[in-house]
C-alpha cells in the first residue's frame, strides 16, 4: 500500500476516544457476553472496533485497486464521476462536495462501487467504472463485497434479536439480492501540504446514510463527537481491527435505540499528516424500496417511539429517496445556500436524536 508501511505510528500525545472491541468470531459463535458488548456499543456510541473479522486479504486487495484507480489521469476518472443527480456510485473528485453549510469544499477523492454492479459483473446494473475497477471486479471487489455483506449481516442479525424483532425484520430489509445503495468506497486524502491546519476538514461532520458501515483505516484522521461532549476526538486505527458504525436507517428502524453518531475526517495527526491517507468502507444500506420507519412490531421499539416526539423517526421516504437526497444536496454544484446543506442532512440534523 502506498505510503502506508513507511508512515509513522499514531502519536501517543493526542487524545483519542477508546471504542469497545467486539470479537467477530465470538459474535458468530453466539457468545452472550460479546453480544452484550456489541449491544452496548451500538446503543451508546454506535461505533466499535471489530477484531477477527477475517477480511484482511480482501481489504489489502481493495486498497491496491483504489491506488491504481486514483493514479489514472483526472480526465479519465472524470468520465466516471458520480454526477449531480443524487447517484453515489462512481468517482467523486476532490472538492465536489461541501463539508458544511458555508460551502467549504471537501479534500478527498474516492471511488464508489455498487454492491449490485460487483455481484452482477460483467453485467452492468447501475453504471460503468474505470478500467482499474473492472480489472479487479471479479477477483478483488466481489470477494470484498461478499465478505463485508456476511460480516454486516451477522451483526445485524444479532441486533435484530436484541431489539426483540421477529427473525428477518432487519436482515430481510438488507438482502444481498435486492438492489440498494450498498457500496464499497476507497478514499484518498492528500498529505497536508505545507501545513494546512489540522482543522481543515477532509470529510465534513455527518452521520452515515445507510445501516451499517465496515471501515478500514491505516492512518488517523477519523474523529467522533461523543454524546454529551463538545470536542471532537480521534479514533485511533488498530492494526487488524475494523471500525464499525451504524447509520441513520438503523436509528430510524429502532426508534432511536440504535445510535448513528456524528463523525468527520480531518488530516491525520502530527507527523502522519505528511502522508497520504487511505481508507476503505463497505456501506450496507437497506433495499431501495424499503420504507424508513420504526419497526414497531417490537414492543421495545414501540415503547421507545411512544416516548419520543411524534413522527421523530418517520423519515417519510424510502431508503433510495433518503440516500439520493443526502448525496445530491451536498454536491457543491447544487448549492444555492446554507439551505442546500441543510437539505442534505439526516439524523445529525435532529439534535435530540443523536
Ligand atoms: O475515512 C474514514 O475514516 C471515514 C470515512 C467516512 O466517514 C465515510 O466515508 O462516510
Ligand atoms: Fe461516514
Based on the model shown, name its key terms:
eight-stranded mixed sheet, 12 strands, alpha+beta, metal ion binding, 10 helices, Jelly Rolls, 31% helix, oxidoreductase, single chain, binds 2-oxoglutaric acid, four-stranded antiparallel sheet, 354 residues, globular, binds fe (ii) ion
What this model shows, in words?
The protein is an alpha+beta fold and 354 residues long. 31% of the residues lie in helices and 16% in strands. An 8-stranded mixed sheet has the order 1-2-10-7-12-5-4-3. The mean pLDDT is 93. Fe (ii) ion (FE2) is lined by residues 206, 208, 263.
Explain briefly what this protein structure is.
The chain has 354 residues and is of the alpha+beta class. The protein has one domain: Jelly Rolls. Helix 2 (32-44) crosses helix 6 (131-162) and helix 3 crosses helix 6.
The coarse silhouette is globular
Unreliable sequence segments: none
Count of spatially separate domains: 1
Number of helical segments with 4 or more residues: 10
Hetero compounds:
2-oxoglutaric acid, fe (ii) ion
Secondary-structure arrangement, i.e. CATH architecture: Sandwich
Distance from N terminus to C terminus (CA atoms, Å) equals 36 Å
CATH topology: Jelly Rolls
Q: Give me the strand/helix succession.
A: EHHEHHEEHHEEEEEEHEEHHH
What is the C-level CATH assignment? Mainly Beta
Beta-strand fraction estimate: 15-25%
Q: State the strand order across the main sheet.
A: 1-2-10-7-12-5-4-3
The CATH H-level superfamily is B-lactam Antibiotic, Isopenicillin N Synthase, Chain
Q: What's the number of extended β-strand segments? A: 12
* CA gyration radius, whole angstroms: 19 Å
Q: Helix proportion of residues, in percent?
A: 25-40%
The structural class is: alpha+beta
Kindly report the average pLDDT value: 93
Largest sheet: 8 strands, mixed
Organism: Obba rivulosa
GO molecular function: metal ion binding; oxidoreductase activity
InterPro entries: DIOX_N, IPNS-like_FE2OG_OXY, IPNS-like_sf, Iron_ascorbate_oxido_reductase, Oxoglu/Fe-dep_dioxygenase_dom
Protein name: Clavaminate synthase-like protein
Amino acid at each position: 500500500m502506498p505510503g502506508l508501511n513507511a508512515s509513522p505510528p499514531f502519536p501517543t500525545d493526542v487524545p483519542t476516544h477508546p471504542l469497545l472491541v467486539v470479537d467477530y468470531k465470538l459474535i458468530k459463535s453466539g457468545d452472550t457476553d460479546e453480544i452484550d458488548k456489541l449491544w452496548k456499543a451500538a446503543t451508546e456510541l454506535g461505533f466499535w472496533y471489530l477484531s477477527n473479522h477475517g477480511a484482511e486479504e480482501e481489504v489489502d486487495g481493495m486498497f491496491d485497486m483504489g491506488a491504481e484507480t486514483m493514479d489514472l489521469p483526472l480526465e479519465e476518472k472524470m468520465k466516471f464521476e458520480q454526477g449531480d443527480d443524487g447517484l453515489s456510485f462512481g468517482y467523486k473528485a476532490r472538492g465536489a462536495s461541501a463539508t458544511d453549510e458555508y460551502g467549504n469544499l471537501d479534500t478527498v477523492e474516492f471511488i464508489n462501487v455498487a454492491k449490485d454492479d460487483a455481484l452482477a459483473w460483467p453485467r452492468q446494473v447501475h453504471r460503468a467504472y474505470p478500467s482499474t475497477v473492472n480489472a479487479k471486479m471479479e477477483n478483488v471487489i466481489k470477494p470484498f463485497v461478499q465478505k463485508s455483506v456476511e460480516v454486516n449481516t451477522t451483526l445485524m442479525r444479532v441486533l435484530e434479536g436484541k431489539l426483540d424483532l421477529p427473525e428477518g425484520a432487519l436482515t430481510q430489509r438488507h438482502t444481498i439480492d435486492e438492489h440498494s445503495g450498498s457500496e464499497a468506497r476507497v478514499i484518498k486524502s492528500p498529505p497536508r501540504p505545507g501545513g494546512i491546519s489540522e482543522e481543515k476538514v477532509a470529510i465534513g461532520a455527518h452521520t452515515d446514510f445507510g445501516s451499517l458501515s465496515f471501515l478500514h483505516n491505516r492512518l488517523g484522521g477519523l474523529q467522533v463527537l461523543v454524546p454529551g461532549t463538545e470536542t471532537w476526538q480521534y479514533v485511533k486505527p488498530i492494526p487488524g481491527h475494523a471500525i464499525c458504525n451504524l447509520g441513520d436507517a438503523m436509528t430510524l428502524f429502532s426508534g432511536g435505540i440504535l445510535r448513528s453518531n456524528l463523525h468527520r475526517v480531518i488530516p491525520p495527526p502530527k507527523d502522519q499528516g505528511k502522508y497520504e491517507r487511505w481508507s476503505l468502507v463497505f456501506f450496507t444500506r437497506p433495499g431501495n424500496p424499503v420504507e424508513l420507519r420504526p419497526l414497531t412490531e417490537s414492543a421495545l421499539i414501540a415503547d421507545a417511539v411512544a416516548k419520543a416526539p411524534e413522527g421523530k423517526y418517520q423519515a417519510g421516504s424510502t431508503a433510495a429517496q433518503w440516500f439520493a437526497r443526502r448525496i445530491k444536496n451536498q454536491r457543491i454544484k447544487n448549492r444555492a445556500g446554507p439551505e442546500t446543506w441543510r437539505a442534505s442532512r439526516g439524523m445529525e440534523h435532529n439534535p435530540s436524536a443523536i
